[in-house]
Each structure stands twice: as structure tokens, then as C-alpha cells.
Amino acid sequence: MIAIGEAARQSGVGIETIRYYEREGIVPRPARGANNRRVYSQQGVGRLRFLKRCRDLGFSLSDAKALLDLSEGGDAECGEVSALAAQHVDSVRRKIAELQRLEAALCELTANCAEGSADCPMLAQLRMS
Question: Can you give the three-state secondary structure of the chain, one letter per residue?
């Protein structure tokens, strides 16, 4: 059995995050040892690692939980997983487009900057908005 600190190290998930996941029912509460401390199985650490990978890919916590549930259901329907992933890809693409618009706006504002000028066109433009 694995203590929470070791579970955190092996999964890459912080101790407070693990506790949060347990409180919120995202992962089941682990067994307790004779000393009343949490003890995790390899399967429990695997769940945490799975959630970490999902979060690293930008999935929301609810989507990560849904994927975890699908992965543990035994008869994971590839169509459901694919649909969830496709929605996430669309969301990522929208964010990229928004960031590109933001980049263009910032480039336009900074292109007018004259180094050493006391009257900064960028600040003037920002004041007008």
C-alpha cells in the first residue's frame, strides 16, 4: 500500500489536489491504515495518473472524470470517448483563434510604439477603449 505523499509523487498530482478529488467524489476515498492514514493501491495511483494526463491535455475536470469513468466501465464506448475528445479539440481551436486575435491586436498596438517617446501611442489607444 502507498502513502499519500508517494501516491502524489508517482502520479504527479499534488497532495491537496488528491484530497480535493476525494472530497468531490472524483476518485474514491482510499482505505485507511492502522495509523488512520490514507493508503493507496496501484490502481488508485493509476486513476490519479489518468486524471493528471487528462488535465495536462486541457480537459476540464468534469470531462476528465467522465473519461476516467468510461475507462473503468469495462465496455468503454469508443464513440463516447471520441465525441468528448472532438468537443475538446473544437474548444482548443476556438481558444487558439482567440489567442491569435489577441496577438494581432497586441502587435498592432506595439507596432506604433516609438522608443523613448514621451507620448506613447499604445497608452493613448488603450485610454480610448
Answer: CEEHHHHHHHHCCCHHHHHHHHHCCCCCCCEECCCCCEEECHHHHHHHHHHHHHHHCCCCHHHHHHHHHHHHCCCCCHHHHHHHHHHHHHHHHHHHHHHHHHHHHHHHHHHCCCCCCCCCHHHHHHHHC
Q: CA-to-CA distance for 129 and 109, rounded, in angstroms?
A: 12
Phi-psi sector, 34: left (phi>0), alpha (psi -120 to 50), beta: alpha
User: What is the per-residue pLDDT across 67-84, written as a single tens digit (0 to 9) for each?
Assistant: 999 988 766 678 889 999
